Amino acid sequence: MAFIRLIINWFVLGMLLWIVLSYIVTFGRLGWDHPVRKVYDALSKVIEPILRPIRAVMPPVRFGGAALDLSPLVLILGLSLLASLL
Protein backbone atom coordinates (compact mmCIF):
# COMPACT_ATOMS: atom_id res chain seq x y z
CA MET A 1 0.00 0.00 0.00
CA ALA A 2 2.86 2.38 0.73
CA PHE A 3 4.15 1.91 -2.82
CA ILE A 4 0.77 2.85 -4.32
CA ARG A 5 0.60 5.89 -2.06
CA LEU A 6 4.09 6.89 -3.22
CA ILE A 7 3.08 6.57 -6.88
CA ILE A 8 -0.04 8.70 -6.26
CA ASN A 9 2.02 11.37 -4.49
CA TRP A 10 4.55 11.48 -7.36
CA PHE A 11 1.72 11.74 -9.88
CA VAL A 12 0.18 14.65 -7.95
CA LEU A 13 3.56 16.41 -7.87
CA GLY A 14 3.89 15.82 -11.62
CA MET A 15 0.44 17.34 -12.13
CA LEU A 16 1.37 20.42 -10.10
CA LEU A 17 4.53 20.80 -12.19
CA TRP A 18 2.44 20.37 -15.35
CA ILE A 19 0.05 23.13 -14.22
CA VAL A 20 2.91 25.57 -13.53
CA LEU A 21 4.61 24.70 -16.81
CA SER A 22 1.37 25.26 -18.72
CA TYR A 23 1.44 28.91 -17.65
CA ILE A 24 5.11 29.24 -18.53
CA VAL A 25 4.58 27.69 -21.96
CA THR A 26 1.44 29.73 -22.66
CA PHE A 27 2.66 33.13 -21.52
CA GLY A 28 6.41 32.67 -22.00
CA ARG A 29 6.16 32.25 -25.77
CA LEU A 30 8.63 29.40 -25.76
CA GLY A 31 9.71 27.76 -28.99
CA TRP A 32 8.91 24.16 -29.84
CA ASP A 33 12.48 23.08 -29.14
CA HIS A 34 12.76 24.75 -25.71
CA PRO A 35 13.54 22.26 -22.89
CA VAL A 36 10.66 23.52 -20.73
CA ARG A 37 8.30 22.91 -23.63
CA LYS A 38 9.63 19.36 -24.03
CA VAL A 39 9.04 18.58 -20.34
CA TYR A 40 5.54 20.02 -20.59
CA ASP A 41 4.76 17.94 -23.67
CA ALA A 42 6.04 14.75 -22.00
CA LEU A 43 3.90 15.38 -18.92
CA SER A 44 0.91 16.19 -21.13
CA LYS A 45 1.12 12.78 -22.79
CA VAL A 46 0.63 11.14 -19.38
CA ILE A 47 -1.80 13.57 -17.75
CA GLU A 48 -4.14 14.58 -20.60
CA PRO A 49 -5.63 11.09 -21.17
CA ILE A 50 -6.47 10.86 -17.47
CA LEU A 51 -8.08 14.31 -17.43
CA ARG A 52 -10.14 13.70 -20.58
CA PRO A 53 -12.98 11.72 -18.86
CA ILE A 54 -13.22 14.33 -16.09
CA ARG A 55 -13.45 17.12 -18.67
CA ALA A 56 -16.23 15.24 -20.48
CA VAL A 57 -18.32 15.25 -17.29
CA MET A 58 -17.29 18.66 -15.98
CA PRO A 59 -16.81 21.40 -18.60
CA PRO A 60 -14.69 24.49 -17.86
CA VAL A 61 -16.23 27.25 -15.76
CA ARG A 62 -16.87 30.34 -17.91
CA PHE A 63 -16.00 33.88 -16.81
CA GLY A 64 -17.14 36.10 -19.66
CA GLY A 65 -14.64 35.43 -22.45
CA ALA A 66 -12.34 33.29 -20.31
CA ALA A 67 -12.69 29.75 -19.00
CA LEU A 68 -11.22 27.99 -15.98
CA ASP A 69 -10.51 24.26 -16.24
CA LEU A 70 -11.06 22.70 -12.82
CA SER A 71 -10.45 19.10 -13.91
CA PRO A 72 -6.83 19.01 -12.59
CA LEU A 73 -8.08 20.18 -9.20
CA VAL A 74 -10.76 17.48 -9.16
CA LEU A 75 -8.19 14.82 -10.07
CA ILE A 76 -5.73 16.01 -7.42
CA LEU A 77 -8.45 15.99 -4.76
CA GLY A 78 -9.62 12.54 -5.84
CA LEU A 79 -6.09 11.11 -5.80
CA SER A 80 -5.40 12.70 -2.40
CA LEU A 81 -8.57 11.13 -1.02
CA LEU A 82 -7.59 7.76 -2.50
CA ALA A 83 -4.10 8.02 -0.96
CA SER A 84 -5.54 8.86 2.45
CA LEU A 85 -7.87 5.84 2.28
CA LEU A 86 -4.98 3.51 1.53
Radius of gyration: 14 Å
Q: How helix-rich are the residues, as a percent range?
A: over 70%
Spatial sequence of strands, sheet with the most strands: 1-2
- The structural class is mainly alpha
Shape annotation: flat
Mean pLDDT score: 89
The ordered H/E elements are HHEEH
Number of helical segments with 4 or more residues: 3
Total separate domains: 1
Distance between the termini: 6 Å
* Low-confidence blocks of residues: none
Largest sheet: 2 strands, antiparallel
Portion of residues in beta strands equals: 5-15%
Give the tally of β-strands: 2
Give a verbal description of the structure:
- It is a single chain.
- The chain has helices spanning 2-28, 35-57, 71-85; strands at 61-63, 66-68.
- The protein has 86 residues and is mostly helical.
- It has one domain (2-85).
- It has a two-stranded antiparallel ribbon with strand order 1-2.
- β1 (61-63) and β2 (66-68) form a beta hairpin.
- α1 packs across α2 and α1 (2-28) packs antiparallel against α3 (71-85).
- The model has no long low-confidence stretch (mean pLDDT 89).
